């Protein structure tokens, strides 16, 4: 990440919170609404999008057009808008649309602003729960029903004591799944289906690992910023930068990251 001024960081945070607030307002009227339907974006599978996804991204883009028109935008639903500032807002209006459709509360809004090297700062916002996880230069905190608290990822502990999350048991290709299952079989507990909330729990010090494959930039850039600010590490399965998506491992600390990487690549 390039050096940026305190004034710019402050302005970016002001805009990021405005985006999260607007997304909450656009989404919540549709959550658990009678008759909510979804279009399927994936032939041969199920990748849903709802009116709430699109409304939230439109609301966030409207704010960016007014407050940061010089910045680029990469959004899940409405694509890419080029900018001139060298900064890009990476938006996932509802991460976990399947959960949203099912009425579960752990879906979230993912917001990041990035430069050429990756995310500068990010938010994992949980509109229904009322929690907002924020991470960036000098800041790692969550606000919610328990007030405002610092974020700090969990200290090292043996892999056989670890808790791991992944959205789907069917992780990637057969080869990728075999690597994931080696880690699954080594940890104490594996849980599925939490979408972006699993990454938030790494930053909060509740779980040790999230391992997934087939992610996009808008799935991971917000979580990267939050977890790294909390002291964790997020890479691909070879230990390289992963802000452009792909196979992702988010770990509470370098020690458990190294143990899990060794099994993924055994």
From TrEMBL:
Biological-process GO terms, alphabetical:
L-histidine biosynthetic process
Q: What is the uppermost EC class here?
A: hydrolase
Per UniProt, the keywords (alphabetical) are: Amino-acid biosynthesis, Histidine biosynthesis, Hydrolase, Magnesium, Metal-binding
Cofactor dependence is on:
Mg(2+)
Q: Does the keyword section mention Amino-acid biosynthesis? A: yes
Q: Name one GO molecular function term.
A: metal ion binding
- Superkingdom is Bacteria
Q: In which pathway does it act?
A: Amino-acid biosynthesis; L-histidine biosynthesis; L-histidine from 5-phospho-alpha-D-ribose 1-diphosphate: step 8/9
**What reaction(s) does this enzyme catalyze?**
L-histidinol phosphate + H2O = L-histidinol + phosphate
| Xref: Pfam families | Inositol_P
Q: Where, by residue number, does the polypeptide cross the bilayer? A: none
Per UniProt, where does Mg(2+) bind? 76, 92, 94-95, 219
Under InterPro entries, the record lists: His_9_proposed, Inositol_monoP_metal-BS, Inositol_monoP_superfamily, Inositol_monophosphatase-like
Q: Which residues form the signal peptide?
A: none
Q: What is its EC number?
A: 3.1.3.15
Q: Which family does it belong to?
A: Belongs to the inositol monophosphatase superfamily.
This protein's name: Histidinol-phosphatase
């Amino acid at each position: 990440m390039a050096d940026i001024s305190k004034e710019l960081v402050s302005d970016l945070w002001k805009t990021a919170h405005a985006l999260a607030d607007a997304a909450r307002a656009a989404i919540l009227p549709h959550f658990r609404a009678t008759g909510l339907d979804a279009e399927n974006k994936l032939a041969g599978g199920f990748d849903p999008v709802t009116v709430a996804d699109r409304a939230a991204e439109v609301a966030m883009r409207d704010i960016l057009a007014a407050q940061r028109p010089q910045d680029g935008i990469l959004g899940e639903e409405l694509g890419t808008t080029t900018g001139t500032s060298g900064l890009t807002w990476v938006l996932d209006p509802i991460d976990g649309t399947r959960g949203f459709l099912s009425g579960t509360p752990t879906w979230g809004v993912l917001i990041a602003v990035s430069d050429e090297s990756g995310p500068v700062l990010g938010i994992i916002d949980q509109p229904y729960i009322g929690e907002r996880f924020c991470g960036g230069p000098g800041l790692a905190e969550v606000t919610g029903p328990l007030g405002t608290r610092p974020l700090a990822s969990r200290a090292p502990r043996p892999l056989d004591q670890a808790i791991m999350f992944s959205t789907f048991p069917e992780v990637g290709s057969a080869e990728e799944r075999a690597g994931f299952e080696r880690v699954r079989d080594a940890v104490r507990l594996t849980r599925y289906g939490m979408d972006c909330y699993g990454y938030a729990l790494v930053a909060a010090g509740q779980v040790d690992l999230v391992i997934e494959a087939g992610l996009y930039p808008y799935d991971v850039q917000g979580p990267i910023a939050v977890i790294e600010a909390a002291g964790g590490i997020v890479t691909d399965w070879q230990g390289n930068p992963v802000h452009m998506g792909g196979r992702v491992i988010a770990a509470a600390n370098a020690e458990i990251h190294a143990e899990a990487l060794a099994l993924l690549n055994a």
